[in-house]
Every structure is written in C-alpha cells, then in structure tokens.
Write a structure and sequence with these properties.
The chain has about 625 residues and is mainly alpha-helical. It has two domains: about 450 residues, no CATH class; about 130 residues, no CATH class. A five-stranded mixed β-sheet has the order 2-1-3-5-4. Strand 1, helix 20 and strand 2 form a beta-alpha-beta unit. Helix 6 packs antiparallel against helix 7 and helix 13 runs antiparallel to helix 17.
C-alpha cells in the first residue's frame, strides 16, 4: 500500500489568502447550500402539525405514550423519546420539531468537524472560514433526505442515524486534535460514550457495527500518531465514563435495565427467527442492490462512461469539459423523466437511482483519476519512502473507509431494501465527495466540474425531495394543503390538523366508543398494524405496540406473555380490533387470556380504506355503559 494523492500529508502550512474570485465562489456555494437546507427546514417547521400516519408513525407515538408501562418492544427508542414526549405534553407537532432540531444539529456537527479535519489534509485550502462554512452547509443540506420517506415523528431509524453522525463527528474532532498533537477535549469522548448508549437503545444491531468501527478507527489514529498509552487510557476512560453515566441515568431515573433488556431480547429473537432472519435479509439486500445497479447503468450510462474517461483526457481539456457537460445534461434529463424528484414510498426506487447515480460517477472518476496519476506518482516517490507513506496514509484511509461504510452499517438489520435506509446517511458520502473534489487528482477542470456538478445535483435533488416529501407527499398521510381540520374531542390529536374526512372519522369513532375509552389507558389488542386507532382512542397496547401483519406468531406471543405475567387491566377487559378474519391461533390466544369473542359485542367501522371490526366487552361485567348501537 502506498499513500494516494487523495490523502495529502497532514503538514499544516500557512495557506494563501483566497483570491477575490475564489472567495466569491466559496460564499456562493455556502449561500446556495444554506438556502437549500433552509427550504426543507422551513417546510418541516410549517408542516409539523399536519397529517398523521396511522401505521408506522402511530406505532412510535403509542410506544412513547406508554414508554414506562409497556416494555414489549424490539427497540429501546421509547426510553429516549418517551420522556421527551411526556415533557412536551404528548404534543405530536412539538415532537416532530425535536426530530428536526436533532437531525440538523447532528449534521452541522458532523459537517463542521469534517471540514475542520479536512483542512489538515488540504494545506493549500483557502485561508477563510467560508471554506468550512461552504462544506458544512453542503453536508447539512443533504440531511433533508431523511424526510424522503420516513414518518414525520422521530423513530429508531433516524435516531440511530443521528447518533452515528454524532459519533463520526467525535472521531473527526479527535483525529484533528491528534494531528495537532494535543489531547482531545474531555467533553468529546464523554459525549461519544453517552451517544453510544443512546444508539444501543435505539437500534442495537447497527449500534454494534458502528461502535466496533469507531473503536477501530480511533485505535488506528492513536497508534499511527504514536501518542502513548497515557492518552489512550484517558480517551478510553472518558468514553467509558460517558457510557456508565448515561447507563446510570437510564437505570435510576428512567427504567431499570432488568425491565428493559429481557423483553427486548425475546422480541428480537422472534424477529430474527421469522421475517427478518439474517439469511433472508442478506438475500433481500443482494437482490435490491442488483436491481439498483441495473437501473443506474441503464439510465445514466453516459455519465458513468464519461466519469471513467475524463481523467485520461487531461491533454484535451475542451473535449473533456464538453463531454462532462453533455453527460450532466443527459443525467438531468433522465432524472426528470424517471423520477422528477418526487418523494414518498411509491417513488423510492427511482429516487434511489437519482441519488446513487451521481455517487457512483464520483467513485468512478476518483478511481480513474488515481489510475491516471499512478505513472507520475511512481516516478516522483522513491521506494524507500513507501513505508512512511503507509504510516501517514493509514489514519486518513480508515477515516475515509469509516465515512463510506457508515450509512450501510447504520442500515443493517432493516427489513427494507438496504439502499432505502443507507440513502438516509447521504451526508457521509457527500463528505467523501468533497474530499475527492479538493484532492490533487481532481485539479483538472473537467474532472472537478463533473464532481462538483454531481454534488450540486445531489443537493438540489435532496432539496426537492425533502420539500415535496413534507409538503405534498408526507409518509402515509395527507399533505399540507389537504390537512386543514382538527379532530374534535380527540385529545391525543389536539396538536394536529388532518384531512377533513380523516378528522371526522376519528372524531366519530372516539365518540361512539366514549363510554369505553373516556378513561385513558384502556387495554387494546389491534390486529394488525392499527397502532393509530389505539393511540387516538387513548388505549394502551397488550403486548407489543406493533402487531405485525406478516408475523401473527410474534404478536400473539406478546399477548400471551402479558396475560401470563400481569393482567394489568383487571376487571376492565380489553377491546379487540381486527381488520381481517380472525385466525385459530388468535382465538386460542384470546381464550388463553380469558377473552371469548362470542361474548363480545361487534361494531363495524370504516376507517380510511379498511373495514375494522371492534369487539367490545359486555358493559355490565366491566363497569362500562351499554355498547354503542
């Protein structure tokens, strides 16, 4: 291994003051990226009180509502956002703003630490803070991709992603301090330790991969710099202190781990044995990746071909530049034709092609630029210098690898196609693109135009995707203009405006069931994926908050576990909801809990596009009023 030209020696030389044109370019880039970020940030603020997804988002909200009462869950995210939701008065709109604030803050932190570290790798970088500001704004603008299809309220996926960027920013901060030969500020490893605990609660499968990667990178950085065992011990000690302090806070101020861990392990064991087994997930990831690559090549072959050829056309700059402009124009036309930067789950496949095509082009141009520079590199670097180059290049190499792998590591364990989740970590890949764009092999005009054009396209596409995904096509709910009405006398939805038909249906449903749900916390079993109905009726789930449509065995196991451990509802028997025929397994499970549907009163309701049969316990035996007619 030899040091590549994308990894310049970290010799901090006094940079030259930027020229007027260079300074204007930096300010322009910062302003453009800042406006792109501001557009979707403003949209997120305005749309915070509009619409409600009755499936995934309501599952999060329901688990947060009963965060310290109901412990059946595959994720511990409820112990992070549950207390926050309670402090906010169970206000959904405010909780959505918390998600926005944490997303933006994590990306700003990551962007600034990356650009500060990159300055050490680019001694000739302009001596102006506009250089850091422009890069940070570009990276932050790409955070809008998290609004492409995830629910509006925070969940375990975006919390895990936020924690990953906080940890990566901590690594970059420490790496910069190592280059400056000074110990890292104590609050950085302390904060990283605390973040590790939060990430472990949110999504343990990806947290394990990310934390192993972060620890490995820090070890390589430390030993490459030969800083001694004392500084390493200080770093490890502070990180462990942060972890122990956060764990102690969870244990004594929130919920003891002996209550959290056993049910989480049991639920995850069932998930791994069924729909999300490792073998099934890897097969799904492979097939999805092959489909994505085929689509990218089919639609953007010209851009990819030019990316390979341009570094070898340095002697013919006009021809190279013309080819680059033609390829970029062709890709823009393909995006408009196949995607149009429209957000929402139905458009995820074309959206991923739009994002991954320029990323692949940047990767190809980086590889071919290195290959084209190899002969000159071999002539200019003596053989005896290769050992030192390896030692100097190792820290930078592991950081680049960390940034490339980070979005994939955070996504592992998802039941969706891997590219759908990995795309949400777009900021890490854009950071690598900035590194490539500022490297020596990208000094040729056509190469740099291709890279910067690809990055600009990503930023613009992200802006349109985020704004459209918030304003017109939010995740499984109505858009801003269609969400105009409050659901009357539905306390759980007081902070929201909904589509008029939805608001009327929810209000009518709660009014009809008012004798049963007027006192909050009524036990409810909702088969399947009807967490939203339980939430708006102020119900409390029996077993998991999410009854998976594709995994009845898992849902019924949670119900049985609750009935065996603690029938906390007492004489106030549970309400049972079905949006499909009842299976034998479910009837057996209900009988195990002392529930016989034949003795219950049936109420049929039409909620949205589904028909829901609600089984109500007999009034006299449970202290309720007469069943609704």
């Amino acid at each position: 291994m030899t040091q590549t030209e994308f990894e310049q020696p970290p010799v901090q030389l006094p940079p030259e003051p930027p020229g007027r044109g260079q300074l204007m370019a930096l300010r322009g880039a910062a302003l453009a990226s800042g406006l792109a970020a501001l557009s979707w940030i403003v949209a997120a603020v305005i749309c915070a009180n509009r619409g409600l997804d009755l499936t995934d988002e309501s599952f999060y909200l329901l688990s947060y509502r009963w965060w310290n009462d109901n412990f059946d869950s595959f994720s511990g995210v409820q112990y992070v956002y549950g207390p926050v939701f309670e402090l906010l008065g169970f206000d959904i709109a405010r909780l959505r703003l918390v998600r926005l604030a944490t997303t933006v803050a994590a990306h700003v932190w990551f962007g600034w630490t990356f650009m500060s570290w990159l300055r050490w790798q680019r001694p000739a970088a302009p001596a102006s803070r506009w250089w850091e500001i422009a890069g940070t704004a570009t990276i932050t603008a790409c955070a809008g991709i998290t609004y492409s299809w995830l629910p509006l309220s925070p969940g375990y996926n975006d919390l895990a992603l936020t924690c990953a960027f906080v940890l990566a920013g901590g690594v970059l901060w420490i790496a910069r301090d190592i280059l400056a030969d000074r110990p890292a500020a104590a609050w950085v490893p302390l904060g990283m330790g605390a973040t590790a605990v939060v990430m472990g609660l949110a999504k343990w499968s990806s947290a394990a991969l990310v934390l192993v990667g972060v620890a490995t990178v820090l070890l390589v950085l430390h030993f490459s710099a030969r800083q001694g065992w004392l500084r390493l011990g200080r770093l490890v000690g502070l990180g462990v202190a942060g972890m122990l302090g956060t764990a102690a806070f969870v244990q004594f101020a929130l919920v003891p781990f002996q209550k959290i861990v056993p049910p989480m392990l049991e639920v995850n064991s069932m998930v791994a044995d069924s729909t999300n087994s490792p073998a099934a997930l890897l097969t799904r990831y492979r097939i999805g990746g092959e489909i994505l690559l085929d689509d990218v090549v089919a639609q953007h072959w010209l851009l990819l071909l030019v990316a390979v050829a341009v570094p070898f056309l340095a002697r013919w700059p006009r021809i190279a530049l013309a080819l680059v402009l033609l390829a970029l124009a062709s890709s823009i036309a393909q995006v408009v034709r196949h995607d149009g930067t429209i957000a929402g789950p139905p458009h995820l496949m074309p959206l991923t092609v739009t994002i991954f095509a320029p990323l692949l082009a940047i990767l190809l141009v980086a590889i071919t630029a290195l290959v084209a520079a190899l002969p000159r590199r071999w002539r200019s670097v003596p053989d005896q210098a290769s050992g030192g180059a390896v030692r100097r290049g190792a820290p930078r190499s592991v950081i680049v690898i960390m940034l490339v792998v980070l979005p994939v590591a955070v996504s592992m364990g998802t039941g969706n196609l891997l590219q759908y989740m990995a795309m949400l970590g777009l900021a890490a890949w854009v950071a690598v693109a900035i590194l490539i764009a500022t490297a020596e092999p990208a000094r040729h005009l056509a190469t740099r135009v291709l890279i910067l054009g690809a990055v600009s396209g990503i930023v613009v596409a992200t802006m349109f995707v985020a704004v459209d995904g918030l304003w017109n096509r939010p995740y499984r709910t109505s858009g801003f203009e269609a969400s105009t009405t409050r659901a009357k006398e539905v306390p759980a939805l007081d902070s929201l405006r909904l589509a008029p038909d939805d608001a009327e249906e929810y209000a009518d449903l709660r009014q009809r069931l008012l004798p049963y749900v007027e006192e909050e916390g009524r036990a409810m079993m909702a088969f399947d994926a009807m967490s939203g109905l339980v939430f708006l009726l102020d119900g409390r789930p029996v077993g998991e908050a999410w009854y998976a449509p594709s995994d009845t065995a898992r849902s019924t196991a949670g119900v049985i576990r609750t009935c065996d451990d603690d029938r906390w509802w007492g004489q106030r028997e549970p309400i049972v909801l079905f949006n499909r025929p009842v299976t034998k397994l479910e009837r057996k499970t209900l009988r195990h809990c002392g529930i016989r549907l034949a003795h219950y009163v049936q109420l049929t309701e039409h909620i949205g596009d589904q028909t829901v049969v609600i089984y109500l316990p007999p009034g006299p035996s449970s202290g309720d009023h007469d069943p609704p007619e």
